Structure formats: C-alpha cells, structure tokens
Amino acid sequence: MDDLNSEFKVVKTEGDSRDGQTKCPKCGATDISLNPKTGKLRCNFCRHEFEPEKVEGLVTDIENLKGTVIGSGAQSIEDDSESIITLKCSSCGAEVVIDTSEVTQARCHWCRNTLSINQKVPNGAVPDIVLPFKLKKEEARQKIEEFVGKRKFYAHPAFRREFTTENIMGVYLPYMVVDINGHSDLIGEGEHQTRRYTVKHGDHETTYYDADLYHVERDFDITIEGLTIESSVDKLKNDSQKTNNIINSIMPFDIENGVKWDANYLRGYTSEKRDTNIEQLSGLVEAQAKDIARFQANDTLGHYDRGVCWQSESMHIKGQQWKAAYLPVWLYSYMQKKGAKKGLLHYVAVNARTNETMGSVPIHIPKLAFISFLIEVACFFTGNYVNEIFDTDYGWITLIGGVGYYIYIYNKYRNTGARHYHEKETKASTKNMIQKDDFIKHRHGLTNSRITGANNTSISSKNNVLGNLGDMIK
Question: From 274's CA, which of 26, 71, 346, 436 has a CA 20 to 30 Å away?
Fold first, then answer.
C-alpha cells in the first residue's frame, strides 16, 4: 500500500465550515468555547448555546460495510507538510501564523476575530471526530487526589512533598477508531472433564483428571464497532522509563457520542498530533480484532470446562472504516529523579468522559522492603508454630506472606499490568454462527487441570505495537 489515500474511499468529514470558522447561529460571533456541563458549544459574546454537529458521510451500517473507508482526517501524513501555516482573517484580511504542532486555533491580533483550522490540513493536526470534555477540572483533581491518597503510605517522600493537582492538564490525545465487518474461522480441540480423583504415592497425593477430547470449529460473521487504537508513537511503544500503559488502561471512551471536529473544543486544553498512519497500525488492529473474535466465540464453549486450544485462527476483513479522533484525558505527571540516570515518568490519568482513573505512584522501596521483611519474619515463626501444633510439614506455606505482600503493594502503586481489555470492552456482535463439535476420544490419567495449549481466553496482541510500527520506533 504505497499510496493509501488513493486506494481507500475517503469521506470528507470537515463539512462546509467557511474560512475555518464556527459562528454563533444567533449573533454570528466567532468567539466560541465548550461548556463541559452541557457538552454544547457556547458563544462567549451572547451566551447562546448550540448543539455540536455530528459527522456525516461515514458508514453507520457496519454489517454491510465493504472495502476500506477512511475519514479525511485519517489520511496519511505527508512528509513534506509544514506545521507552520498562515491563516487569513476573513474579517479584516490580516494574516496570522500558527504552529499546528501546538495549537489549532488563534485570534486575529487586529480585530480579535477567532481563527480556527476547521478545514483539513494533511499533516495529522486535525481529526475527523472529537469527544468533548465532560469531566470538569475540579472533579478530575478530586479523582486524582483520591487515587494518590490511597497510596501515600509507601509513596516516595519526595513525591509526597511535591504532589499537587494544581498543575493537571486537560489533553486531547490522538486515536484511530476502527469499525470492522469481518468473518472469523476458528479450528482446534477442546476438553470436557468427566472425572477428578486423587491417588496416593507414599506420603504424597497426586490429582488426576479424565476428560473427553473434541474437535471444535466455530465459523461466524462479526461486526466490531469503535475499536480504539492510540495513534501516537510515544504512547504505543513500550518504554521502561514511562508508564505508557496507564493512558491505555483508562479506555474505553463513549465513541458513539463523538462529534464533528471543531477547533473550539480545544480552547483551554492542549492537544497532541497524530504521528502514525493506517498501514503502521493495521497489524495491531488485525491482532486485536482476532482477540475480540476469539472472546466472542467463548459464549459457545461452555461445555469445554478444561478449555479450548485453537490451532488455526483466521480473520477475513470484508470491510473496515477508520476515523481519526481526539479523545479527552485529564493528566497528572511526575518525573521521579534517579541521580544522574534518566528519571522515571509517572502518570495519573482520568478519562474525561467516564471518570475511569489509573496511575503510577513512585514507591519508597526501602520502606516497603523493610515492612515486607518484618512480615516475612512473622510468617516464619507462624509457620513453625503451625508445624508444632498440627504436626505437619506445611507451615512453610506461610513464608509466601512477606513476598506476596511486597508484590501486592508494588502492583497497587505501579500498575504495570494495567491495560484496556479491548477483547471484552469493545462493542462487537456475531451472526451466522456455525458450530462443529466432534467427539475424538476419552482421555484418562491427565495431570493438567487445563487442556495443553489452552488459548481461548488468551490475547495475542497484548496491546503491543505490531507490523511496521515496530521498526519505526526501535
């Protein structure tokens, strides 16, 4: 796909905004801003509020989507496009220069008329849709303070001294939103447990399982709506010095409430430009679509209580639609300094639509290690007491107490495993399901509680960047 824009059906999503301006329908003023309480645009001159426009022209009947459709804001970024552009004021004719890598709106310095880039520019600065901020700053501050407040005991002393929510930022982050009309074909084997029993071998017991083995196939059509992918290289790549997964974990957003792009939504907030193209994200989208299909099939696998091992998985995408989107996040960041080494960047992020909050708090490791050691000592004596009182050798199990406590607290503060569960949280539906379940044989004396290679509840993408993007960010 050397020329993606020529191979795709491009839908013009910017509408008919003239001179890149939005005007108040009541008085004609261009000084417009968002009222986060109502989600409407408000004229700052006459205070009239009006409904935001919905995006027109994009496919809404995903079940019948064919080929590849993209919004004009999702077109490939041109290498030679400039971030510095000139806007001509339609009121007085003055020219205003802005840097689209930082802002997409300006005010004429002569007549104070508001100038906006509502007309598309081919550099990734302007999306197809925007999801306006719904959560106010004070509410976001409270969410962040509550999150950090539950983690202050082991927080690093420097962090506790410097923590303040005064400097949180409202940011529109770039995403690609993908709708898919596909067909999934899964082939593998599943097991149903028929018996569970234990056999003594001297002083030890071994648990065994009997199970019936089946050949399993699932063939079905699937529609996926609003699969959301981060379209910033910085947020996609795995960086040990940043907690990028925190941003991912506050999804999903209520994409269905997205409206047509209008630069007035950015007033009072910052934004980040998209810097990836469709061909760089298509591998990740396909992998996540397969994950979603695999989990959709689980609704038909209740009989296989020992799991299913899919040996062949195919996803045929009959139609797909891509939209570039700006989605709202309240963001607190903190750089944990580590001597002369590069610091560790921590985030606490709040989804400005759903209030979902996740973050990473710097840990005072010596304090955590010391208390974990005390717990381990207490567990040691408890284990010896259990052995003496109950005449058993299993008291050693208590020794996992200190280690387990350390791991639990570390995970609670750092949340390194937090992520968006795209396989469960993305809207999807299936139809024309064809099921095939053929008995193969009885199995006896199995030692595993699950079928070998069970993967029907596993994901393949793991939210990692796939395909060409992997080479791009090395």
Answer: 346
